[in-house]
Amino acid sequence: MAYAGWSVLHPEPLSPETTDLIKESGGQSSEMLGLVGNLRLLIAALICGVTLLYQGGLSLYYWSKTRGLR
Are 22 and 29 in contact (CB under 8 A)? Predict the structure, then answer.
């Protein structure tokens, strides 16, 4: 989750080659750049969601298993 937060707060700029390709693709370059930003947010949200489900699920599982041992 720390990586996802860091990547949202400090996004890496696109490489010059990628930026040139987007600009050469037509008149919708600003929309494409906006989609890239939205894709970064989506990936960060997916990382956080999967982390919460996986690690939260494991913690609940092991908590329920050790609760009966006391």
Answer: yes
